[in-house]
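Write out this protein's structure.
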Amino acid sequence: MSHSVYLSNTNSPSGKDRNDIMMMEWEYEMPLLLQPLLISGGFIENDILYYDAKPGIENLKRFYNFLDATKSLINNKSNFTASKNKLFKYLDSLDQPYFSMDARNVFNMDETSHNEQAAIWLADIAYNNAMITSAMDNNDISMLSYNKLKHVSMAFHSFDELLNYADYNYGWKLIHEGSGMEEIYYENGLWGLKSAEGEILLPPQFEEFYEFSEQDIAVVMKAKKYGYVNRSGKIIVHPEWDEAYDFDYSHLAIVQRNGLLGLINVSGEVVVEPTYENINKVGYNGQYIAQKNGSWGILAEDATVIIDFKYEKIELLHENVFLLLKDGFYSLTENGEQFDLIVRKAPPQGFAWAIKGKEVYLIDKYGISRANKELVQQDAESDGYSFYYDKVVRDRLLAYAKTPDEETVIDAYTPVEELYNIGVDAYARQDYQSAIYHYTLAAEKGYGYAMNNLAHIYYMIEGYVDDDKAFYWYGKGAAARNTNAINGLSLCYQNGIGTPPDIEKAITLLQQAAEDGMAAAHNNLGFLLYDTDPEQALYHYHQAEKLGEPDYGWLGYLYEENGNFDIALRYYQKDESEIGAYNLGIFHQQGLGTAKDIKAAIGYFKTAIERGYVRGHIELAQIYLFEEGFIDKDQAKVHIEAAGKAGLEIPGELIQGCQ
């Protein structure tokens, strides 16, 4: 059974009607890009969600126009514009009053009642739309924080990654134009296909005609042989296979002949010859675990052999990590360390235990490390251990947990967290060589925090600065979704560190970091956007303030630029920097946002000078030369000389005033 969600335009919430227009069929989820359609009048009838269509269409148009206007968000503007126009035209063609969302096939996967699940989906869609609306109202895409959205695809880490995913084609791919309009019809004991207008695309000729897949391709059967047709009525593969299965997300389908399996592409071309006893698609990276002559290996989607066919068993443990069994020993890679046994474990710390003799190792996304004995004991004594392994394995785990601790050894099996913490301690002692060594060990295992800290040393610690290494490790850390590394990589693009300057890339990266809630990224966005969009700059400075890292100087300056001196003064009063003192001197000198107070201004300028902002000498000279009641040429000369020694350009009026 297909675990799909169906979106339709319907005339009545009373059940399926022959005039219903099925707009979308998508596995497991209601795609986020189309959720703005479900904004108004949501209610549940017979476990189906219903919404008002007209306000939903207007809301989705607003959402797409908002995305269109957001700078540095869309990777392919021409494709986005084309998809947006097609989507708007298609939605305008819908004239029935309701949208219905039927997820009952997905509900079947859970023991919770359909009605209860429908209520949860209703609430989750409303929650997501509230976030989308807030982002639109504030004209800020960073408010659409992907990790805070509910019931969205876990294949993506950020909204911009989802939006620019090629297979979605900016949302148009999600809508099957005319889906549900073509009719698979039955006549004289055979199946054919008609267009929405009733034109016969394929006359009745098939004994079976299955539903169209996401690729708009359906399996058909004739004379006990299977083939494929597409929605336009073209026969892609004439019925010639003994068995045929739907196309998967890599656009390949498993086919069978003479009891052996192979793969074909959407053009009907054979990609993998039918020579395998078993083929199973695993993960999201286009890989297939296959069996040939009784042994197991792994194929890429182009038929390349990734792992040779010499294993007794291959199992996907986690994402791109495979368990290999040969000659009674287990390993994770073809030439990797061999273990007596590898078994799955309960999350969240790692996903498997590896046992070798009396030793136990943890397998997680960073590789293989020596297992923490407390964690092993906790896992083995948990109520749910039997879900993952049997009593024999449990006893071996407990035996390891109870062995005395030995002296810590730093080697290939040291956990990344431990390596990272050693690096942190070394950095605190300013032992940068040791910090680099331990951070590098952890970074090479894929630990994002170590990547960021290593890049930081190469970016700014005197004696260790290396632009190329800083850029490299910030890039690796950003790819690992470390927010600080994303921010650091943006600084590389901003300042040309290890790469040519690219302000657009810097802004895109900062938007990702800001979406993750990083205050420094908001402050950096404020700085970069000031010249082109001061309103957005002010917004980001306020977001950083809300997150506890205000830049009072820039907040004051932006309000000063807007002529709002009262608010500017309040921010300058909070700015304890030398420039903050200088700005307060200017405001008291000129009477901006407060009464003019030359004595107070002199005090602030002197504070600014004491803190290192020598520009205060110029303002003090100005006061001592021209401000009635405070004129003192000797003092003016002292400050002019100090300004000159500091390399400042002395205004001509001050030089003349001292003569």
